[in-house]
Amino acid sequence: MSEPAVGEAASALEGLDPVLTAPKRLAAMALLSRSAAADFAVLREHLGVSESDLSKQMSALAAAGYVTARKSGRGRGSVTTYAATRDGKKAYARHRSALEAILKG
């Protein structure tokens, strides 16, 4: 089996999105790309992370423009709901395709 040329290896990595290389953000986008929206509690349970960790991960996705956050209610009864943006869904699809290409070798 021959080694891939340098340009080929680089092209396989080009589709990877630095924002989505973090496993928790990738898992959140996987969930959000298949649903209309998910609230904070659902995401926290799905990812199995602390509230502060989820907040940090979702802030990074929001800063990249990959998700929107909508808050309803006030105080302890408030609920934050996240939805993937069109750009976020496109970025997730590109990242996923790049991962699949790398895994196929």
List keywords for this structure.
alpha+beta, 105 residues
Could you walk me through the main structural features you see in this protein, from its secondary elements to its overall organization?
With 105 residues, this protein is of the alpha+beta class. It has 5 helices and 3 strands; from the N terminus they run ααβααββα. A 3-stranded antiparallel beta sheet has the order 1-3-2. β2 and β3 form a beta hairpin. The chain is elongated, with a radius of gyration of 16 Å. The relative contact order is 0.19. The N terminus is likely disordered.
What secondary-structure arrangement, pairings included, does this model have?
Elements: H1 6-14, H2 23-33, E1 38-39, H3 40-47, H4 51-63, E2 67-72, E3 79-84, H5 86-104
Antiparallel strand pairs: 1-3, 2-3
Runs with pLDDT <50, length 5+?
A: 1-9
Specify the biggest β-sheet. 3 strands, antiparallel
| Strand tally | 3
What is the tally of helical segments? 5
Structural class: alpha+beta
The H-and-E topology, N to C, reads as HHEHHEEH
Strand content: 5-15%
Distance between the termini: 11 Å
Overall mean pLDDT: 90
Instruction: Going across the biggest sheet, name each strand in turn.
Output: 1-3-2
Specify the helix fraction band: 55-70%
Overall shape: it is: elongated
Radius of gyration: 16 Å
